[in-house]
């Protein structure tokens, strides 16, 4: 018996020893990571070889290290196979990775997550072999400078749940019939993909049964005049069809009202919808964020909006809406009084006095600029403790503003009361309970042909005037927005500007010919727009310019030369097929001719003339003399009148501190390069 017990005990010990790793793993006592697979490590190294890494994003990818510890790489804890490859580098100041994707990517057969967005693949086609990664769930190819045709083979990725193809340079697809094959798709973003030839786009996306987020902004969508008979896509939470040419005669609204009543966020701004805002929006009971900006809606704001209790954002700017503000606010407060946070009604024809808005205690931003409001601002405004932005300018408001109007506005960041008849009567020893990041107190003078760049503040009957405040502006970053139109020529009057970034927008027209007046400019990025014409020769006068990116536009002619311009390589100009001259390999006809700016410094200003400009006119001298007078309403006025520029400008202000860090990072990289050379 004793021998049997001893034998049993020894057997048990052996079993425990054999099971030790399993038990330890079960109890979480050891690391289950076994190190990456050698063939996958070699595949990643081949991928690195085909990429030009300007900022050291892949510096951790070393042949003597475990690839599961590399930046952007994640392995499975159970199998050690690579399951995630994230090369998104949106935090870098410029596109960090260039080159091409190596076919060795298909060796990563267990990959479920692939993100190569915000890089530069030189307008090459999306590699077809990506469609072989059958386990992919998440695929982000946005803003990666892909071009040519979108491979229909992407439809083979049947497990895909997330697909982003936005902000690239694809050819106009004839059809998108491959999309319904992605039967598991939940998120689809194809913003800026030109779908003008796809007349059945709505019928196609309607076949995606699990789709919850659809972004088709700036796609030049054709109007649809028949509602899809088969409705599968009834789970949409987010729908963005902004910046298209959709009209009220289209069936899009009918489809939305009848089949997508679960939408939480709906963006239809910058289309061509006309007439009254349909009451049918009330069918979407879950609606919390509605953007109808820059359409042609008219009449009063629907009363049914007052019965919708989930409002967070209501944005109706830039229409022809009228009616009494008081009636609308009282109606809105019936149900959404504790939910509404962002209310944008500027650039309409809304009338009446400003009501007591304490009935909307959660309100954070209020935009009523450029309406037909009159009367005084109630002192109860000072009780809205959550208010961050108050924009009431360009109305017929009058009366006295005192400390009481600001008593509890501890979160206030932006205050804009320009072009009103309001008078500030503030005690000289008053300490504001807030710290403003932006203020607008200017006014329009009697002559409408000119404007003043100044603000007036009154303390107990004494006026304090602040002039040329725009001269303090050092950096503008409005990149990756949806800005349209031409670059305002008056922007060159901001002669204190050090950094200007308008990249990745929809800007058209020419680069301002007097860009050389920005003599303090160190960084200029106008890439990924639709700018045309020649590069102004005056740019060669900016001797402080150390970072330049004009790539991926429609610029033409010879690249100007200069001591500073000659330091930039071809990357700064690529993607402009009609450009020629150094540093591009394409030579210009008559290479010996040069673009030399003519500079006249006799009047104390740099007068710049290009060959095509002709004689310098008196108007140019006057514009230079006026200086900031023109710049205020040329730049800021553009933002006031253009919703997209204005919204982006304040977004820039909010992110200014982050951009300072980015600029510092650029300087450090530049210094490191100089030390290496």
UniProtKB/TrEMBL annotation:
This is Leucine-rich repeat-containing N-terminal plant-type domain-containing protein. It comes from Quercus lobata. It comes from the Eukaryota. It is found in: Cell membrane. SUPFAM superfamilies: L domain-like. GO terms for cellular component: plasma membrane. Residues 39-76 form the Leucine-rich repeat-containing N-terminal plant-type domain. The chain crosses the membrane at residues 618-641. Belongs to the RLP family. Keywords: Cell membrane, Glycoprotein, Leucine-rich repeat, Membrane, Receptor, Repeat, Signal, Transmembrane, Transmembrane helix. It is a single-pass type I membrane protein.
